[in-house]
Amino acid sequence: MPETGVKSTFSKSTGLPRKRFYRARAHSNPLSDSHFPVPISPSHVDYSIHFPQIFPDSSKKIQFADVGCGFGGLLISLATLFPETLMVGMELRDKVSEYVKERILSLRVANPGQYQNASVVRTNSMKYIPNYFEKGQLSKMFFLFPDPHFKEKNHRRRVISPFLLDEYAYVLGVGGIIYTITDVEELGDWMKSCLENHPLFEALTEKELEADPVVKLLSSATEEGQKVARNEGQTFQAVYRRIVPTEQTS
Amino acid sequence: MEETEAEVAPALIAVHPHRSSVAVAVGYDLRVFDLLAGVGVTLVNDSSSSSSSSSSFHKDSIRAIRFSANGNLFVSAGDDKTLKIWSSISWRCIFTLSSEKRISAVAISNDESCVCFADKFGVVWVVDITGFDANQPLLDKKPTPLLSHYCSIITSLEFSPDDRFILSADRDFKIRVTNFPKKPLDGAHEIQSFCLGHTEFVSSLAFFQAQEYQHHLLSGSGDSTVRLWDVSSGALLDTCDVANKAGLLESNGNGKSEEHGHAVTDLCTTLDGLLVAVAIQGLQGIALLSCNVSAQTLTLAKVVSIEGEAFVPTCLGYAASARELWIVTGVSSLPGCSHPSFARVRVISGIDIEQEAVVLGDDKMPGGEKLLETLQGTASVDENAFLAAAEAVKTAMCNLLIKKQYTSESRESRKKTRNDRKLKQ
Ligand SMILES: C[S@@+](CC[C@H](N)C(=O)[O-])C[C@H]1O[C@@H](n2cnc3c(N)ncnc32)[C@H](O)[C@@H]1O
Q: What protein family does this chain belong to (chain A) (predicted)?
C-alpha cells in the first residue's frame, strides 16, 4: 500500500483496516428503503467477485450465511474452520460491510490461500434473502446478537419472526441449522418461541449442541459476543434444525 | 404520512365466469350490470353494516374486485380497510370484514373455501368461508395471518387453479409461490419457489385454466415485460418485452422511453391461455401475445388499437363463453376536475386465433346503452374528461406501484416529523 501523508485507514502494524474509520450509526432501520444493488435472482450473484480465487472454475454455492454479521468476527473464525465451505456475511450498514470487506481482503493478503471462502454483501436481509440463495441452498444460518427492537410495535423489525422463518426455512436445506444468540433475555425468549412454534424447525438436543464445534463460537467469535463476555453478561441461545414437517401440507 | 395524500385509484373490471354479469369499480363506487336480464343491479348491504342506507358500500377507493371461479361469490376491498363478500346471485353482501390496514389485493380459493387478502404491510390474511350460504350472512369470521412479504406492498394475489399454491406478487419485483396448507388458519409456511426475473414492480398475475398447464404462470410488470414461469420450480421460461415488440419505444421519438412509461398494468389469459391480453401504459388498445406453453414461448401476435379515443386500459376481464375481452379505463376523482370519477368500458370481441378481433362500437355493446349508463355512470363520455383521465391513470399507476424515491433531505425531514420521535421530545 503506498504511504501517504494522510492517516491511513489501515493500521500500520497489522495491515488490517482500523475499525474507527468505519464507525457507523448504531442502529439501522431495516424498514426504510436504502438504495443498493440487489441481485435479480440467486443465479445473478457474481461469485467471481466474491471468491476470485475459486471462481469461475468452481460450481460451489454459498452454504453459510451470517445475517447481520456486524464487523465479521464469526466469518473470520468460520473461514478457517470450514475452509472448503463458501460463506457470506450480510450487513445493512454500508460502512460496516465495507469494513468487513477490507478485513477479509487484508487477511487474504496476509495469509495466502486462506480466507478465500468468505465474503460479505451489503443488503437488507429481511427483504432480499431469496435474491441471494436458492431453495435449500444453505446449511447454516447465523443470527448473532441481533438488534433487540424492544417496543412491541417494532417487533416486526426483528430479524427472527414467524414470517421471516418461513423464508429461512426455504433457503435452508433439510437438516440445515439456524443459530441464534443474544444477551437480551426478552429477545432470547422471543427467538426461541418463534423457532419452537414453527412447524419446519426442531431444537437440537443437548448432546448435539455439545458435539457441534460451531456452538462454542456463538458467544466468543463476534465483536458483540466478546463485548458481552467482557462485561460478564448472560447470553441466551437457540439452535434449531430445519426439518420436514410431520404432516405434509401438500 | 402517505395516508393524507389523495391518491387516485384506477378503475377495475371483472366479468362473471358464466358471463351473467359485469362489475366495474371506480373510486368507492361499485357498479354491477346483469347481462342476462339486461339491467343494472341494485346491491344490498348486509344487515350488520351501520350505513345500510348509503348508496356507497365502500368509504374509500376500491383496489380489488373479483368473482370466484364458480361464479357464486364476488369480493370487493380497498383503501377503506374493508372487504366485502357478495353473493353474485342475489347481490346481497353476505360478509363485511374490517382490516387494520388498507387492502391491496384479494383472492378466492377455487373451491370457494377461503378468501385471502393482502394489506398495505405486505401481510396476507385468510378467512375461512366454508359452507357459506348465499342467503345467510356469515357470522363472526375473523381473518388470520397466512404469510407475509416483508414490508412490500402486495400487488396481486392468485390461487393456482388446483388450489395447491397461493401466489403473491409485490412491488419489490418478487413473486412468491407458497403451498396452500390444509389448515390455512395455522399459516402457510412452506414456500415452494420464488419467481425472480422482473426488474420492476410486478403488477399482475394470471394462470392457465388448462389442466396440463395449471402450474404455469404469466406475470406483467413495470419493466414493460410479460413473463412465463413454471411455478413449481420458479423457473423463468420466456420473456416478452411488450413495449419493445409493440413498437411503443419508437413512437417516443427520442428513442428513450420515459421512466415507467410502459408499465404492464394488467393481463388476462384467454382461450385457455393460447392468447394473452395485455394492457400496457402508452398503448391505446391492447396487445395480444400468443403463448405456447409446451414450447415455452411468448410472442406478440397483434396489437388491437382503439381508434378515436385516448383509451389506455386500466383493467381487463375475459368472458370465455363469448370470447370477449372486457376492458375499462378510468380513475377515481380527478384532482382539479369537475368529474368526480371517470370510467369508460369497451368490449373487444372475436378473441380467437383465426378470427379478427373487433372493438365493438357503443351501439354494438352487449347490454347496450343501459350497460354503459350503469358501468360508466353515463352513456356518453366527454372527450375532455378522457384526456385528463389518461394523465391521471398514469399517475395512479405510478402511485400505486412505484416506490417513492426520497431524496436524503426529505428522508431526514420525514424522520424528524415522525410520530414516535415527536412523542419523545
Ligand atoms: C448488534 S449487531 C451484531 C453484529 C454481529 N452479529 C456481532 O455479533 O457482533 C447487529 C447487526 O445487524 C445489522 N442488521 C440489522 N438489520 C439488518 C438487516 N435487515 N439486514 C442486514 N443486517 C442487519 C446491523 O447493522 C448490525 O450491524
A: Belongs to the class I-like SAM-binding methyltransferase superfamily. TrmB family.
